[in-house]
Amino acid sequence: MITGQRYAIQQVGQLPDEPGVYRFYSTEGTLIYVGKAKSLKKRVSSYFNKSANHSRKTLKLVSEIESLDVTLVNNEYDALLLENNLIKQYQPKYNILLKDDKSFPFLLITQERFPKLLAVRNRKKNAGTYYGPYASVKAMYSVKDLIHKLFTLRSCTLQLSQANIANNKFKVCLEYHIGNCKGPCEGLQSEEEYLREIQEVKNILSGRLSLPQNYLINKMNQAAEALQFELANQYKIRLELLDAFKSKSEIVNPSIGVLDVLTLVEHEKSAYLNFLQIENGSITSTYTFEAKKTLDETEEELFLQGLANLRNEGTSRAKEIITNVVVQTVFQDFTIIVPKIGDKKKLVELSLKNALYYKKEKISQADLGKQKEDRVLSTLQRDLQLKTLPKHIECFDNSNLQGSNPVASMVCFKMARPSKKDYRKFNIRTVDGPNDFASMTEIVGRRYKRMLEENEPLPDLIVIDGGKGQLSAACEALNSLGIYGKVPIIGIAKRLEEIYFPEDSYPIHIEKKSESLRLLQRLRDEAHRFAITFHRDKRSKASIQSALLDIPGIGEKTLEALLKEFKSVKKIKEADEESIATIVGKEKARLIKNELK
């Protein structure tokens, strides 16, 4: 790793002229940006080129770079995938943020004897083969229902091992008697026959509908030749169901084969991408997602980040990708094309229609949310008779258990929403014992002294969790800093939800159903939750340290050595016995693990 910005700039010239991934770190060692490059030397040096016409956001990124690290790869595609993996793992603040509204559903064919077909939302490694994602739960279940009508798949959770079946461990259930299952649990259906049907299910889920169609035709003809006309009619009904499904799902020429469609439309701070997976003229899966811009990324950069995510997830697998975005980057594993005419052009237009609809819905939701935020803040301003709209509110709370491990918290709401990056935790330094008033004076004083020193803008409203006493303690801190009266401050008491103002003898009451009171309650409850969580973690850490020191042979030096290696008590607890033994020896490691259990 290259450390120190000035030194980092000097070292840029030594970077190789090869493809790879670069990582920028802040002074705290936090990863703040991950990027890919065809030439690491040219790309990284461009950030430190004073003549470059960088945007304001990029200049801010460069000002925070303290160190950098690079990884060489074989080609641009490998760089794209590695970049995407690192962004998903570390979520650097200056990278594009990909967002889904929810976890999209998949259909899963399980990896076991006599596999099952399941609808799932979360993908697990080695669970089986996933198909999707499906943008519509209704569409997914319609496919699932069709498959269960066409083929007799089991729905039970029995472990159908050869030994269990041979020992007659199971009995057929109602599903067998009503014709939905052929009874593999009693050996009434062979694994070979069952897997043939599973293969046809995979063909349907992959969009290869002609294969299960031929399978059902052959089954129907075999039944007819054997004079099993009732069975032949059942296969005929299934064929009709499959034909109806095929006519609905087939939207373009079946000769198109396998390809992926990914289109993009931009807005001010976001881009919206729609993905369609096409096989033999049918859409086999689709979903739409949002990419948040952070550094005024180009259309191509936004597109490639979304594509990398799809390729990493295994959702996009085709050798040909069609889009509306002109991409200069060339990849060996697949081609990216902007079609001008024909069926492929129609598919791009269909995908764009989905992306535009998603964009419209998102903007509409954001507008409604902003209207609500403005309404709530205006109501709060009126109820508390504030001079300005309280866009930035901070709320304080204390937490201790009979004076042990006293801590405090501050939570911040901006535009009526939690701004978690601005939350703060406080260890009480100057107060002994359970003194909530003195603790409140300390933490409020520390918070705003630092903000004044760093020229940070003060909040529009300060909320204290507590009544007259806690509020007076907070006002004392503001007075000592010379900002009392410059920032509105109130206290909210839990019992009757009374609102206290400084120097007023009597509290006011806001209408119980008022949106402004609900906002204050959310602030108070969030500050309380944050303080309690911090206190619980600190108490747990202290108790574990105390328990470790009570073990014979474990002293301060041993604990110090463990903390130096594992960095925290939590990681000591998570470490295996062998790892601990490398620091303190086998006997002590065994004692420590037994105590932690």
TrEMBL record:
- Designated name of the protein: UvrABC system protein C
Upper classification of the organism: Bacteria, Pseudomonadati, Bacteroidota, Cytophagia, Cytophagales
Cite the InterPro entries for this sequence. Answer: GIY-YIG_endonuc (IPR000305), GIY-YIG_endonuc_sf (IPR035901), GIY-YIG_UvrC_Cho (IPR047296), RuvA_2-like (IPR010994), UVR_dom_sf (IPR036876), UvrABC_protein_C (IPR050066), UvrC (IPR004791), UvrC_RNase_H_dom (IPR001162)
What PANTHER family does UniProt report for this protein, alphabetically?
Answer: UVRABC SYSTEM PROTEIN C, UVRC/OXIDOREDUCTASE
**GN (gene name):** uvrC
Q: What does this protein do?
A: The UvrABC repair system catalyzes the recognition and processing of DNA lesions. UvrC both incises the 5' and 3' sides of the lesion. The N-terminal half is responsible for the 3' incision and the C-terminal half is responsible for the 5' incision.
Any Pfam family? UvrC_RNaseH_dom
Q: Which keywords does this chain's UniProt record carry?
A: Cytoplasm, DNA damage, DNA excision, DNA repair, Excision nuclease, SOS response
Q: Where is the GIY-YIG domain?
A: 17-96
- Tell me which species this is from: Shiella aurantiaca
Description of how the protein assembles with itself and partners? Interacts with UvrB in an incision complex.
